[in-house]
Amino acid sequence: MAEDDIYTKDGTVDFHGNPANRKETGTWRACPFILGNECCERLAYYGMSTNLVLYFKNRLHQHSAIASKNVSNWSGTCYITPIDWSICG
C-alpha cells in the first residue's frame, strides 16, 4: 500500500511511460521551462507582428491600411486558433 502512494493517481507517466513518481515530477521543477517557453513564444509573436506590416508594405506592395488589416487578421487567427483546437479536441 505504501508503495502505491509514491505514484500519481491520475494516469500521469514519465518520459519512459512508467507511472510518475510524485516526488520527482511536476510541481515547481517544471515552472522555469514553462515560463521560458512562454517568453520565447511572446518574443516571436510580437517580433513577427511588428515586421509583418513592413513586409506587406515593402515586399508585397500593399497599402498601409490593407497591410494593417492583414496583420490584424493574422493576430486574430493566432489568438482564436488555440481556443478552436481546445473545443475540437
From TrEMBL:
Record-linked InterPro entries: MFS_trans_sf
Tree of life domain: Eukaryota
Name of the featured protein: Uncharacterized protein
Lineage: Eukaryota, Viridiplantae, Streptophyta, Embryophyta, Tracheophyta
